[in-house]
Design goal:
The structure holds three protein chains of three kinds. By secondary structure, chain B is of the alpha+beta class. Chain B has one helix at residues 2-38; strands at 47-54, 63-68, 71-78, 81-86, 97-99, 104-107, 112-115, 120-122, 131-132, 134-137, 140-146. Chain B is elongated and about 90 Å long. Chain C has a single domain, classed as Cytochrome Bc1 Complex, Chain C. Chain C is mainly α. The longest helix of chain C has 33 residues, at 177-209. Chain C is globular, with a radius of gyration of 23 Å. Classes of the chains: A mainly alpha, B alpha+beta, C mainly alpha.
Chain lengths: 475, 148, 340
C-alpha cells in the first residue's frame, strides 16, 4: 500500500497551492527581514567608540638601572608610595626615574653608597637643573630661594628665642626651608630633614627645592597650579593671600569653575583669557600668557613689597608693574586694570603715610630715648607695634592687592586703626607724651584729639540726608 | 494551472530574493565586524621625547645601541653632532650593527651596508636608515620615539 | 506497484545520504517546545566563532590574562561586542539547554528505543557546563580564581581518582599559571572538539533513532527545507536578540584575582548557582556525593524510567512531578544565593 504520507512528501518546491510552500515563503521573508534588522543592529554596533586607554600616553619607561631600585624598594616595602606616585608622573614615560634624579658623585657632601649605587636622598635645584635649567635659574634669583635667609631677622629671634628652637624645625622651616645638615655617615640630620621649605639651604650650595611646589614624586603641574599649593605657606594672620584670594571674585569664580580650568595643560596651551578664564595664584605671578613666558621668579611681576613696616617699590618696579598689567589685560580692559592699580596704590600709600611711617618713627624715637629696651618682644608695646605692621598692616595691604574687601577693611584697616588708636597711641603716651603728640600730628589723625569741625559735621549730615534718605549711620 | 504555477514561482523568487539580500547584508556585516575585530587599525603616530642620557655617554665616533619602549635605535655621535638611527635595516627588517673601523652600519642578514649618514651604499637595502629626532635640553639628550 | 512518472517513483530509488536526512520528521516538531534543541546548536556555532576570535587577543598567563580581557573589552575595536556575544551566547545556550532538557524529560522522549539520545544529550549538557566553568576561569578575576580553587579542591576529595584528578587539572598541587594554561587548553582545544563530536553524535543519534510518538502527529515534516529554514530563522532571530542585548548590556569585568583575600561577594555564574548553594548548605562529603549521585541518576534516567514503567508506575505524571520539584529546588537555591 502506498503510505498516505508519501503523496505529500514530494519535492516541495514545485507543489502549488499547498500551505507548506506559503509557510516556506513566510519563513524566507522572516529570515530576510531578521537579517536586515541584524544588519542595522550591527551597523549601530560599529559606531560604539572604545574609550581612550586609561591613564593616557605612555606607560612608565623603566630602564634596567631603575628597575633594580624599584624592584628592591617594592619588595622591601620602602617608599612604595613615592614609586607609585612617580609611575603616574610625566617623568615616568620619558624614562626619568630614580637614578636620573637621585644619583650623586662620590665626594659630594650628601652622597652615600646605597646597595652598590652612589645616591643622594636630597634632590636639589642643582639636580633638577640638569633638565630644567631655565626654571632653576629663575628660581635661584627669586625671593623664594632666599626664604631661609631670615636668620638675622626679628622673626628668627621670635622663633628661636621667644618661642623655642624646636619651632624652627617644623614651624618656620616648614615654609621657609631649613639649612640641611649632613651627618658623618652621609645621612641627613633629623632636625633639618625632611623639609620642603621653599628656601631650603642645600649642602651642595643651591637654595630652595622644586618639590616645595611640585610635590614629589608626581611633580604634577596641575597640582602646582592649584591655589592651595601656594596657600600652604601664603596664608594666615600675617599674610592671608589665599584667604584674600578666595574672597576675591577671581577666587570665587575659580572655585565655581574648577573643572573647566584644564590645570594639567602645558604652558603653551594654558593661557588666561583663552584656554581658561579664572586666574589662580600662578596665573598672575608666574604663568605664561599670550604675551609672556612662564617665569619661576615669582617677583618678576610684583612692584610693591608688602612685607616690611613701610611698603616700598621694588627695583625696576615700572617693568614689573607693566608685566603684571599685561597679565590682567589677558582678560580685562585697559581702563579696569588702570582703576584697580590706582586704588591699590592709593590704599598702600594710605597705610604707609597714616600708620606705617608714623608708628615706625615713634618706635625709633622711643628706642633712641631709651624708653624701650633694645631687646625685642620683651615689652607689650613691641608686640603691639609688631602686629600692627606685621599682621593687620599686612592683611590690609594684601586685601588691597587681591581686591578682597573684608581683608581691606574689617580684617585690615579696621584693626590697624583700632590698635593704632586704642592700644599703640596710649602706650606711646605713657612712655613719652611728646612722641605721642608727634604721632598724631597729621591731618588724618586730627579727629582723635580735636574732633571734627562744624563744617565737617554739617557736610556729613548733608550726605546722610541726601544720599541715605535721612538714615544716620550707626543706628 | 500554468498561471497558478507562475504565481507561486514568483512568490518563491521574491521571498528567496529577500532572504538572499537579507543574508548578504546581515551575515556580511557580521562577518565584517568579526574581521574588523581581528585587524587592528593603524594608530596615528604620536611622538614622545624620551631621555637617553648625557651627551657624554656616547663616545665620539661610536654608536650606542638602545632599546626604548621596544624601538631599537642606534645613537651615533660624530664630530658633526648626534643622530639617532633606527636599527631596522630597510631591506627586510634585521637589526644593523655599527662597525667603528669601517665607520659603517652593517646588516648581517643579506650584507646590506649603510654609511655614517645612514645612506644605503651596498647590498639589497633600497633606502637609507630611518632617523629619530634628537633633542638636546640642558646637556641631556632626548629622542622622539613613537609612543605606543 | 509503481505508477509511471509518479513523483513517488523517485523516492523508491536507492537512498542516498541526502534522502536519508530528508526522512520525514513528525509534524509535532513544528510546535515551538520541540524546537528548543536547535537553539543551543546555533549558539554553539556562535560560541565557537566568537571564541576563536577571542583567542587572537587573549593571553593565558596569570599576569596577562585579566589585562588582555580588559584590553579586549575596552580598547580593541568591537572587542566589547565579540566578548559580549560570547558571554550572552553562553548564558542563553545553557538556559535553552535546560529548557530543552525539561521538555524532553516531561514528554519522556527518551523512551525505548531512544535511551541513547538522552545519554548522549546528558553528556553534552555536562561537557557544556564544563566549558562554562573552564571558560569563566580564564578571566582570572576573583570569581575565576576562587572558582578554580574550590572546584578542583572538591574534585580532589573524591576517593582514588580525586588526587590525580586534582593534580591533572591544576598542573601541580596549587592553583598556578599551570592551572590557567591547562584550563585554557581544555576550553579552546580538547573540550570544544569533544563537544562538537558529542553534539554531532547526539543529532545523528536522534536522527537515526527517530522520535518518540506523539499522539496525532503524522510523519511528514520534511527536514529540508522546512525544518532547516525554521532553524535558520531561529538562528538569525537569536543573533538579532543577542546583538541587541550586548548593546544594551555591554560586558563588564569584576575585580582582578586577589590570591590573598577571598572577597565576600564571590559567587559562581548563575548556572552553577544552585549546586553552589547546595554545597554551601550541606556538609562537604554529603553535598558532593549527593551531587554526583544526582548526576549519575540523570544520565541513566531512561533506564530507570523503563524499569519503573514496567512495574506500572505512571511515569508521565512522575516526570511532571519530579521535573517541577527539581526546577523549584533549583529556583529556591538560586534565590538563596542572591540573598546570601
Amino acid at each position: 500500500m502506498d503510505e498516505p504520507d508519501k503523496d505529500l512528501s514530494t519535492d516541495q518546491s514545485e507543489v502549488s497551492g499547498s500551505a507548506p510552500n506559503g509557510k516556506l515563503n513566510f519563513t524566507r521573508y522572516l529570515i530576510g527581514g531578521l537579517c536586515l534588522v541584524l544588519f542595522l543592529a550591527l551597523t549601530g554596533v560599529g559606531y560604539v567608540q572604545v574609550e581612550e586607554r586609561r591613564g593616557g600616553g605612555l606607560r612608565p619607561f623603566i630602564s634596567a638601572e631603575n628597575k633594580k631600585c624599584i624592584d628592591c624598594h617594592m619588595a622591601k616595602d620602602v617608599s612604595v608610595g613615592g614609586i607609585n606616585d612617580w609611575k603616574y608622573s610625566r617623568h615616568a614615560p620619558k624614562g626619568i626615574g630614580c637614578i636620573e634624579c637621585h644619583r650623586a658623585e662620590k665626594g659630594e657632601p650628601d652622597a652615600y653608597d646605597h646597595y652598590g649605587s652612589v645616591v643622594s636622598t636630597l634632590v636639589t635645584p642643582k639636580d633638577c637643573m640638569r633638565c630644567h635649567d631655565k626654571e632653576a635659574k629663575e628660581f635661584e634669583k627669586s625671593h623664594h630661594a632666599k626664604g631661609a635667609q631670615f636668620t638675622n631677622s626679628l622673626d628668627n629671634f621670635l622663633g628661636n628665642v621667644v618661642e623655642g628652637p624646636e619651632v624652627i624645625t617644623t614651624g618656620c622651616a616648614g615654609c621657609h626651608g631649613s639649612v640641611v645638615k649632613v651627618m658623618e655617615n652621609g645621612k641627613l640630620h633629623p632636625s633639618t630633614w625632611p623639609n620642603s621649605g621653599i628656601g631650603r639651604v642645600n649642602p651642595d650650595g643651591s637654595k630652595g627645592t622644586c618639590a616645595a611646589c611640585h610635590a614629589r614624586h608626581g611633580f604634577s603641574i596641575a597640582q602646582a597650579r592649584q591655589p592651595e599649593n601656594c596657600g600652604r605657606c601664603h596664608m594666615g594672620p600675617d599674610h592671608p593671600q589665599i584667604e584674600a584670594y578666595y574672597e576675591s571674585k577671581h577666587g570665587v569664580l575659580f572655585t565655581a569653575n574648577k573643572d573647566k580650568m584644564k590645570l594639567a595643560q602645558p604652558s603653551e596651551k594654558w593661557h588666561p583669557g583663552k584656554d581658561y578664564l579664572f586666574p589662580t595664584c600662578a596665573t598672575c605671578h608666574m604663568s605664561a600668557t599670550t604675551t609672556q613666558e612662564v617665569t619661576h621668579d615669582v617677583g618678576d611681576r610684583i612692584s610693591w613689597t608688602l612685607r616690611p613696616v613701610i611698603s616700598t617699590r621694588l627695583e625696576n618696579y615700572e617693568v614689573r608693574r607693566k608685566a603684571m598689567r599685561q597679565v590682567c589685560a589677558s582678560c580685562h580692559s585697559e581702563q579696569i586694570v588702570e582703576r584697580f592699580f590706582t586704588s591699590m596704590d592709593q590704599g598702600i600709600n594710605l597705610y604707609n603715610e597714616k600708620f606705617g611711617k608714623p608708628s615706625k618713627a615713634a618706635m625709633d624715637k622711643l628706642l633712641a630715648m631709651k624708653k624701650i629696651t633694645p631687646t625685642p618682644y620683651d615689652e607689650e608695646i613691641e608686640w603691639v607695634f609688631y602686629e600692627l605692621w606685621h599682621h593687620e598692616g599686612r592683611r590690609a595691604r594684601h586685601g588691597l592687592s587681591k581686591i578682597a574687601p573684608d581683608f581691606v577693611h574689617w580684617q585690615g584697616f579696621y584693626e590697624v586703626a583700632k590698635h593704632f588708636y586704642t592700644k599703640f597711641l596710649p602706650m606711646v603716651r605713657v612712655l613719652s607724651p611728646e612722641v605721642a603728640k608727634e604721632l598724631v600730628t597729621q591731618e588724618s589723625h586730627k579727629w582723635v584729639e580735636k574732633g571734627m569741625t562744624k563744617e565737617e559735621i554739617a557736610k556729613m549730615i548733608e550726605f546722610y540726608d541726601k544720599e541715605m534718605q535721612g538714615k544716620r549711620g550707626g543706628g | 494551472m500554468a498561471i497558478i504555477h507562475d504565481d507561486f514561482g514568483r512568490r518563491r523568487f521574491l521571498s528567496q530574493a529577500v532572504m538572499g539580500f537579507g543574508l548578504l547584508f546581515g551575515m556580511g556585516t557580521l562577518g565584517l565586524r568579526f574581521l574588523q575585530f581581528l585587524i587592528p587599525s593603524p594608530t596615528p603616530k604620536r611622538y614622545e621625547a624620551v631621555l637617553i642620557g648625557a651627551e657624554s655617554r656616547v663616545p665620539v665616533g661610536d654608536a650606542v645601541p638602545m632599546d626604548l619602549g621596544g624601538q631599537k635605535i642606534m645613537v651615533l655621535r660624530t664630530n658633526d653632532g648626534v643622530v639617532a638611527f633606527s636599527r631596522r635595516c630597510t631591506d627586510l627588517g634585521c637589526l644593523v650593527s655599527w662597525s667603528k673601523e669601517r665607520e659603517q652600519f652593517v646588516c648581517p642578514c643579506h650584507q646590506g651596508v649603510f654609511d655614517k649618514t645612514g645612506r644605503n651604499i651596498a647590498g639589497p637595502p633600497p633606502r637609507p636608515l630611518d632617523r629619530f629626532e634628537v633633542v638636546k635640553r640642558g646637556g641631556q639628550l632626548y629622542v622622539n620615539i613613537q609612543s605606543s | 506497484m509503481e505508477s509511471a512518472a509518479s513523483p513517488v517513483e523517485h523516492r523508491a530509488e536507492p537512498k542516498s545520504w541526502i534522502d536519508y536526512i530528508q526522512k520525514d520528521l513528525p509534524e509535532h516538531l513544528d510546535w515551538w517546545p520541540y524546537t528548543l534543541g536547535a537553539i543551543p546548536l546555533t549558539l554553539f556555532g556562535l560560541l565557537v566563532a566568537t571564541g576563536l576570535l577571542l583567542t587572537f587577543y587573549y593571553v593565558p598567563s596569570p599576569d596577562k590574562a585579566y589585562e588582555s580581557i580588559e584590553q579586549i573589552t575596552n580598547e580593541v575595536y568591537l572587542g566589547w561586542f565579540v566578548r559580549g556575544v560570547h558571554k550572552f551566547s553562553v548564558d542563553l545556550m545553557i538556559l535553552f539547554l535546560f529548557f530543552h532538557v525539561i521538555r524532553v524529560f516531561v514528554t519522556r522522549a527518551y523512551r525505548t528505543p531512544g535511551e541513547l539520545k538522552w545519554v548522549t544529550g546528558s553528556v553534552v549538557l555536562l561537557v557544556t557546563l564544563g566549558m562554562g566553568f573552564t571558560g569563566y576561569s580564564l578571566v582570572y578575576d576573583n570569581v575565576s580564581y576562587w572558582g578554580m580553587t574550590v572546584v578542583t579542591n572538591m574534585l580532589g576529595t573524591l576517593p582514588i581518582v580525586g588526587q590525580p584528578l586534582l593534580y591533572l587539572l591544576r598542573g601541580g598541587e596549587e592553583v598556578s599559571g599551570g592551572t590557567l594554561l591547562r584550563l585554557y587548553d581544555l576550553h579552546t582545544k580538547l573540550l570544544p572538539v569533544l563537544l562538537g563530536i558529542l553534539v554531532a553524535g547526539h543529532v545523528v543519534v536522534v536522527r537515526l533513532l527517530g522520535f518518540a510518538d506523539v499522539r496525532g502527529s503524522r510523519r511528514f515534516h520534511p527536514f529540508y527545507p522546512e525544518h532547516t529554514m525554521m532553524m535558520g530563522a531561529v538562528a538569525v532571530g537569536l543573533l538579532v536578540l543577542i546583538t541587541d542585548l550586548v548593546m544594551i548590556f555591554p560586558p563588564t569585568l569584576g575585580p582582578p584575582a586577589d590570591p590573598q583575600e577571598v572577597a565576600s561577594d564571590v559567587s559562581p555564574p548563575w548556572y552553577f548557582s544552585a549546586p553552589y548553594m547546595w554545597i554551601t548548605l550541606l556538609p562537604g562529603p554529603v553535598a558532593l556525593w549527593s551531587l554526583l549521585g544526582a548526576v549519575g541518576l540523570f544520565v541513566v534516567y531512561p533506564f530507570l524510567d523503563r524499569a519503573l514503567s514496567e512495574r506500572g508506575w505512571p511515569m508521565t505524571a512522575v516526570n511532571a512531578g519530579v521535573g517541577t520539584a527539581v526546577v523549584l529546588l533549583v529556583v529556591v537555591l538560586m534565590m538563596l544565593d542572591t540573598r546570601m
